[in-house]
Every structure is written in structure tokens, then in C-alpha cells.
Amino acid sequence: MEEIKAFIVEPIAEGHGDAFPREGIITFEGIKLTTPESIVGFVHEVAHINTLPPFIETLEQKDIRSKVLYEIANEYVAEQALVNIKVLPSLNSPRLQRIFTESVEAWMTESELKFTYDPEKLKRIVDKWWINHLKSSETLLSSFKKLEKKALPHMKIKRPTRNLRIK
User: Fold this and answer.
1) Single pTM value for the model
2) Does a structural domain hold residue 111?
3) Strands (E), 98-163
4) Number of domains in the chain
């Protein structure tokens, strides 16, 4: 990407952002932009510019669980980038823990399909995957497919309950 245009917008949902990779544009809500939390959120959106294009076709064919795993993987990419340039001393465990609790619930609202999962178990699976990914020479997309194989069985789809009529 030759250029990325970033639009800092008035806050409405606390740290929300969007990336538009084809256009090279991100938007980010301007909440305390100098805090580490906001810097990580901003870099998360910038990371989408690089990580999303190879995933677009794959994610369009998948359900919300894969899309949530992609968002989680993108968060690891963003934080690792900040660790690599010494903005963060290490992957931010409290922030990552919130990803597996609060953020997954928020991302799930984008779909009628819901799933259940154990946040701690899913975090262990993703942490192990990330370590293996960093050691490998695989692309993020091919490595991500391995993550899906490990994680999706632990993200059980909720079946809709039928409304029973009692006469």
C-alpha cells in the first residue's frame, strides 16, 4: 500500500475503527489517542490494510466464527508489530483477554449465527497457534487455516430454539 489515509472521527462507541483495504482508508474514533490502548487499536485498524486482502474471499465463504478468529489474529499481528518496535514490552495479556470476552461478543452481533466457547480455552489455542506461526515461514492465511482446524471445534454453533406452542 503506497498510502493509507486515516480519519480520526468523533468518538461514539469507545475505540471503534474500520478499515477499507481496497481504498487504503481507515477510520478510528479519537479517544485519548496517546494512550497505549488507543495506539494498539489504531495499529489494529492499520494492520487490516495488510492482513485483510488475502482473507477476503476466504472469509466471504465462512461463518462468523472464522471472521471472529480473523479479528483475533489481526489483533495479534497488531500487538506483535508494536512489540517488535518496542512500543509494547510484550503482548498485552489483559487487552488480549478482553478480546476473548468482550470483543468476541461484540463481533458476534454482526451475524444471526451465534456460538458458544470457553474464552480461556480459545485464548490458549490462539496463543499456541501464534507462537507456532511466528516460528514458521508460512503466510498468515495458510497458518490461519491451521488455527481454524484447531479452534472451530471449540466454537460450538448455537442451534435456534423453537418456540413451542402449548394448547
Assistant:
1) 0.84
2) yes
3) 115-116, 156-157
4) 1
